[in-house]
Amino acid sequence: MITIVDIGMNHETAPVEVRECLARDLGNPDKVLISMKEVPSINESMFISTCNRVEVLFTTSDLDKSREAVLTLFSKLGGMAEESFSSSLYVHQNMEAVNHVFRVASSLDSMVLGEPQILGQIKEAYSRATREKRTGVILNRLLHKAFRVAKRVRTETGISDAAVSVSYAAVEMAKKIFHDLSGKKALLIGAGEMAELAAKHLLSHGVSSISVANRTFERAVDLAGVFRGTPVSFDEITAQLLEVDIVISSTASQNYVITQEKVKSSLRKRKNKPIFFIDIAVPRDVEPAINDLPNAYVYDIDDLKGVVHLNMAQREQEALKAERIVQEEVIKFGKWLETLEVVPTIISLKEKAEAIRQAELKKTLPNLGQFSPAELKALETMTLSITEKMINDPILLLKRKAGRATRELYLDVARKLFNLDQDLGEEEDGHQQDDKDPETTS
């Protein structure tokens, strides 16, 4: 029996300190996928790693062995003992896992309800898994359904209407410090999607200038061009600390980009002018000890929770509609999953019908003389239609019984009625001979 499993942690179950440790090597998704491929009990798998969650989604025929292998993988790649993070993990199985995936894709499980970034991140993770040939019938169906569910939620509810996101929350936090952002200067470190959203919100709230620093300078130039900002190199960050009021950092660095020592030296030259750091990276970019310095304020991604709650009332109301859509689609997926058990019998039935059709055509056609191509095509169509109609009712019956307690009985009867297990050996053949109606053999 195949089990769908989702094991992971998110912003609600694990603090940023734990998530960032797992995100270091687990941030290399190819390494995770290769490691999971080496686990015999795991059939299909994909891996999701964002600033707010680390998850493994997989199918298995041995739940205990697979779960143990995943925990060992987390421990090895995260450089942590299992007991230090096991209490932060959630484990969802089968329909609970399906429900969880649908909710995550629909942004019902995000720190910021309704934020759109998570769907793109899941699509990227799925694309990577398919390139590595780690998905199959079940996960392909599950993820494509998840994308459709997310689209329904986005179009049928107003869950994304209110302007809230982690980047928006960061700007709201800056407003609490400075009250008015007009004339303030900002530095964005990192040029990804989060930085781009932050730039939009900063400009809409009156920030006068934006500088963009990125390890790939070309990307910094591109993003700065969009917002008429100034691209700067990573080596210029320390100099920028003398000029800017707000720093928003969202890189994929494994070490601190902004250290206490760098800020301490710049504060002496700023003459008590406050500087505000918003760290939306995991692992963190800004050293927390900077908070101990006068006129320096550091907020990480967990600190933003309080801000985003202020903008959630409308989205929470719309989330009720979204949850209904998710539950509806979970039920539909569950029914499809149940049909998988009858699929082998249906396939066998179709194959046998087609084999009989082909054999009879091959035997009969030589005795009927010459046919034109059009006549042969018409004959092919007619015989195909007859076989399909003959087996249509049995197939529909099996599909209807897929989710019933009597499923096994109907599968057994169908296989015997249509003699689908012809290769079970001589003993079974002998029983079939004994079971013939005596009136038909007299």
Architecture overview:
By secondary structure, this protein is an alpha/beta fold. It has three domains: 184 residues, Glutamyl-tRNA reductase, N-terminal domain (Beta Polymerase, domain 2, 2-Layer Sandwich); 144 residues, NAD(P)-binding Rossmann-like Domain (Rossmann fold, 3-Layer(aba) Sandwich); 89 residues, no CATH class. Helices cover 54% and strands 12% of the residues. The protein is built from 18 helices and ten strands. The strands form two sheets. A six-stranded parallel sheet has the order 7-6-5-8-9-10, with helices on one face. It has a four-stranded antiparallel sheet with strand order 2-3-1-4, with helices on both faces. Strand 5, helix 8 and strand 6 form a beta-alpha-beta unit. Helix 1 crosses helix 3, helix 4 packs across helix 6 and helix 7 crosses helix 8. It is elongated and about 105 Å long. The relative contact order is 0.09.
Element-level helix/strand string = EHHEEHEHHHHEHEHEHEHEEHHHHHHH
State the total count of DSSP E strands: 10
What coarse outline follows from CA principal-axis ratios?
elongated
* CATH architecture descriptor text of the largest domain: 2-Layer Sandwich
The share of residues in extended strands comes to 5-15%
CATH class identity of the largest domain: Alpha Beta
Contiguous helical run count: 18
> First CA to last CA: what distance?
45 Å
Largest sheet, spatial ordering of strands: 7-6-5-8-9-10
